[in-house]
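__Protein archive entry__

___
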Amino acid sequence: MVIIKKAAPGVSERTLTRFIQRARKAAGLRGQVDVLLASSRNLRVLNRRFRGKGQPTDVLSFPPISAVAREFSGDIVVSADIAARNARLYRHTPAQEVKILILHGMLHLAGYDHESDHGRMARKEERLRRELGLSSGLIRRTERVAHAPSRVQSRRKRPLSLVGLESRTLSAVGRRPKPAPSEAEGTVGHRRRIR
């Protein structure tokens, strides 16, 4: 399911639905993946509630509870505002950027974690990006910007943020989600650990 709460130029529910099916299979996910396209304000609220970070981010991934993991692989929330800004910055369309962010979120749902996997997620993202006809992968371009100061980096208002997160379903996103587990708890019910 695709929900467009905040539109991005050139992005339609139909084209995103087709892309999500292709990306889901390419990432090795069996169950349905729901995607919400929202505002940076919405992402800031979710990021604060679940990660304790009071800033917007580009993409959040919410793995499912284990009871529904066979039929449902999780939720992805993308900031339409940040996608449009990054599209201008990297000189491609907002639709292309939304797809790049969705692919990144799918890989988190598939269990990849670029912060601790020694480049495994980055390699997979690059390969799938080429297969799916997308421009530069999120991890690689972020690494290039972080390691080599350039005009692109100096024009960025905020650093790109790559995160994974968990919750119940997209229905929880539109309402008041329950607080995230503390680091000491690690998990809530049957949900996997926050990435």
Summary: Residues 100 and 137 are 7 Å apart (CA to CA). The first helix runs from residue 13 to 27. The beta strands are 2-4, 32-38, 59-62, 72-79.
